[in-house]
Design a protein that fits this description.
Length: 207
C-alpha cells in the first residue's frame, strides 16, 4: 500500500517512558518522502522540528533559538533509521531479524505485531546466546501493522536500560501536496547551529 506513494503524512503521538512510567508525551504531524527524508513537526506541548534531509538530521528548538545538526548516518536518534522505511516498510533494511511478537498485545485485535532486532545489535557472542538472553541485553523494535489496511499503527523502541519510546500513527495520507523544500532545513536568522549528537531526551535511545 505504501509503495505507490512517494510522500506520506500521518499524525503521531510519542510517549517516552522510564521503567514503565510515562515521563513525557508529545504530538504532532510527521511526513516521509522517498528516499530517506522525513519531517516531524511537534505541536504539543511545545513546537519543535526534527528533519532528515537524506544526509543530515536537524533538531530545531525555536524557544532556545538553537538547531542541532548531525550526519544522518552518525545519528543515534531512533527517528533517523525510521526514514529508511519511508514509503516501503522493508523491515530488512534496519532489522537483523524479525519475529512475531506473540507476547505483545496489539492496540486492535487482529493487528500484526512484529519484533525487530536492529542491525548492528548482534555480535558473535549474541549469536550463541538464547533468545531470552539476547532480548534482555539489546534494544528491540516493536512494529504493529493494521490487518485491514496494512498501515503502520505504532512503533515501540524498547531500550535495554528500561527506557522505552512509543510512536503511534494514524490518519495516514498518501502523496499530500508538499514541496521538496519541505524536507530541507533553512536556518532562521539569529539561530545558533550546534554540531553534535541530538539530545538524549528527544528520542535518543541508542541502537
Amino acid at each position: 500500500m505504501y509503495r505507490g506513494a512517494r510522500t506520506l503524512q500521518a499524525t503521531f503521538l510519542e510517549r517516552y517512558s522510564e521503567n514503565g512510567h510515562i515521563v513525557r508525551t508529545e504530538a504532532g504531524v510527521a511526513y516521509f518522502r522517498r528516499p530517506g527524508k522525513m519531517r516531524w513537526e511537534y505541536q504539543s506541548p511545545e513546537k519543535n522540528l526534527f528533519l532528515v534531509d537524506g544526509k543530515t538530521a536537524w533538531f530545531y528548538v525555536p524557544r532556545d533559538h538553537t538547531v542541532t545538526r548531525v550526519p544522518a548516518k552518525q545519528s543515534e536518534d531512533w527517528r533517523t533509521p525510521l526514514a529508511l522505511l519511508a514509503g516501503e516498510m522493508k523491515l530488512s533494511r534496519i532489522c537483523a531479524r524479525v519475529d512475531l511478537a506473540n507476547g505483545e498485545k496489539p492496540q486492535k485485535d487482529g493487528d500484526v505485531v512484529l519484533s525487530c532486532l536492529p542491525k548492528g545489535s548482534e555480535t558473535k557472542a549474541d549469536q550463541t546466546a538464547g533468545n531470552d538472553a539476547l532480548q534482555a541485553k539489546r534494544d528491540t523494535l516493536i512494529f504493529e501493522v493494521a490487518q485491514e489496511t496494512s498501515e503502520l499503527v505504532r512503533i515501540v523502541v524498547r531500550g535495554s536500560g528500561g527506557v522505552d519510546i512509543e510512536f503511534q500513527f494514524k490518519d495516514w495520507q498518501f502523496d499530500p501536496p508538499v514541496p521538496d523544500s519541505f524536507f530541507r532545513f533553512e536556518v532562521p536568522p539569529g539561530v545558533a547551529i550546534v554540531n553534535g549528537e541530538l539530545p538524549a531526551s528527544n528520542g535518543g535511545v541508542n541502537p
